[in-house]
Write a structure and sequence with these properties.
- There is one protein chain.
- The chain folds into two domains: 7-49, no CATH class; 54-352, Aldolase class I (TIM Barrel).
- It is built from nine helices and 19 strands.
- It has helices at 95-98, 112-121, 138-150, 165-173, 187-194, 199-211, 230-243, 269-281, 295-298, and strands at residues 7-9, 18-20, 28-29, 40-43, 46-49, 54-55, 57-62, 76-81, 108-109, 126-129, 154-159, 177-181, 215-222, 250-254, 287-290, 300-301, 308-313, 316-320, 351-353.
- The strands form five sheets. The chain has a nine-stranded mixed beta sheet with strand order 15-14-13-12-11-10-8-7-19.
Length: 357
Amino acid sequence: MKVDKYWHQANDQAAKTIICDLCPRHCVLKEGMRGFCFIRANVEGKLELTSYGRSSGFCIDPIEKKPLNHFLPGTPVLSCGTAGCNLGCKFCQNWDMSKSRQMDRLMDQATPEQLALSAKKMGCKSLAYTYNDPIIFMEYAVDTAMAAHELGIKSVAVTAGYINPKPAEEFFSHMDAANIDLKSFSEDFYKTHCAGELQPVLETLLYVKNETDVWLEITTLLIPGLNDSAQEIDKLSSWIADKLGAHIPVHFSAFHPSWKVQNIPQTPASTVKQAREIAMKNGLKYVYTGNIHDPTGASTYCHNCKKLLIARDWYELSIWNLSPEGACNFCGQSIPGIFDGPPGDWGSKRHPIQING
């Protein structure tokens, strides 16, 4: 698919050199070259999204796995992704897809209309663009979101938020919810471990929260010795509370050795729980633990009366004390989020599907 915007021609016209304007990298591409993300390429002097309509696979997941705890809890979401990424995180937990440089990884195919129809037929209330960052396959994600909206299906972006302001306006205008990775609160961490920058991510978070209607949740993967100190968690959570508000759900997840980071052990559960405590002391009302077994840290409590509203054990929901409109059954406090009647009962199962064939 030839891309008609978010790139421009460089001064080197003879070589048909172009510059991609999608993300802060501004990749300079001579004819035949691919960007850092791998799937955006200079084809005959124009930018092409080489993965349009192709996917590394389709799967129905619980929405809590994205993770989203305040967006249609308990419901199934049809997940899809492609290959490549515009960050270079050495610790990537989905490295087999995000770091793939083999187009053969994209064996499955589906048009936006086929994806939307499949989500509808399978009883999914939303479609998630995930596994690798949907920003780099923005045109495919946006077209799919538009097709999904025509069928009453919502769209979810699971992203690192590494995008320039103008394309961000278009991308998020088609999303209903987003979980954005805030990988650290350190520019040095982003430079050393992600080959990127922190500031553009902060700007994306501010834009989504203050300028859109997108439901926003944030995830930070805690890596021992790199971004898990009490001081950094204090700074990160204080910034979120001050700039984005106390009611933004924040997820602290445990790291497991992966890709280029095999010499660091998995994050202790105590570290994840401590991060939750620090964030809550800084005023955040909805802080969750992930990738560890912690029913207390995974469950939702009313920020007003502190009563248990949604009990979670991994991705299984049990106790439910919310009204259909999303208010606490005990004190009547409206709970921030997108709720649609009674909870779903999809549970923890993961169901790979084929859309063609």
